[in-house]
Specification:
The chain is an alpha+beta fold and 170 residues long. Helix content is 21%, strand content 30%. The strands form 2 sheets. Strands 1-2-3-6-5 form a 5-stranded antiparallel β-sheet. Strands 4-7-8 form a 3-stranded antiparallel β-sheet, with no helix packed on it.
């Protein structure tokens, strides 16, 4: 009888060991996710913000993250905003307002350097990155999904995500 109990306990321990060695978080699996550059490019929009004296002052790139990996970015609309600011008088994000379909984001936060990867990356070492979450729009609103970025003393910029991009590989 004692042998059967010991054998049962041993088999239970082996099963638990196997179960936990096969379990990893999704984020660990995607740590080395290879996102094709064309997929990121298709889901990104650029805005060149020019001053009144016709000088380029701010470059902004907004990337729609839900189309890149829906399993990570679900239940909200997530965007990554990269801003390169060439004007020391303009303090971003203090002077910026961003809206989607005329609605403010649920939250916006700065992305730290340790969080950068093959999806969240900065094209310029002097840029700042921001992760933005919006409430998920209806199916009908999605067809006209545009993000407006306003920075004090500049005209608003529009990032148009209403048109569908085709999945292609270069």
């Amino acid at each position: 009888m004692g042998r059967i109990i010991k054998l049962t306990i041993l088999l239970l321990q082996i099963n638990i060991f196997i179960l936990f060695t096969n379990c990893t978080s999704y984020f660990a699996k995607t740590e080395f996710l290879d996102s094709p550059p064309e997929l990121i490019a298709q889901n990104s929009r650029m805005a060149l913000i020019i001053s009144n004296d016709d000088k380029l002052k701010i470059v902004a790139r907004l990337t729609y993250l839900n189309n890149i990996d829906i399993s990570v970015y679900s239940n909200r609309e997530y965007f990554f905003l990269e801003i390169f600011n060439d004007d020391e008088n303009i303090i971003v994000p203090d002077s910026m307002q961003i809206t989607m379909l005329n609605k403010k984001p649920l939250w916006i936060r700065s992305v730290e350097e340790i969080e950068l990867d093959d999806i969240l990356f900065l094209n310029n070492s002097l840029s700042s990155g921001f992760l933005i979450a919006f409430k998920t729009p209806s199916v009908f609103e999605r067809k006209t999904m545009k993000i407006q970025l306003k920075i004090d003393t500049f005209k608003p910029s529009i990032f148009d995500f209403s048109y569908i991009t085709l999945e292609t590989k270069l």
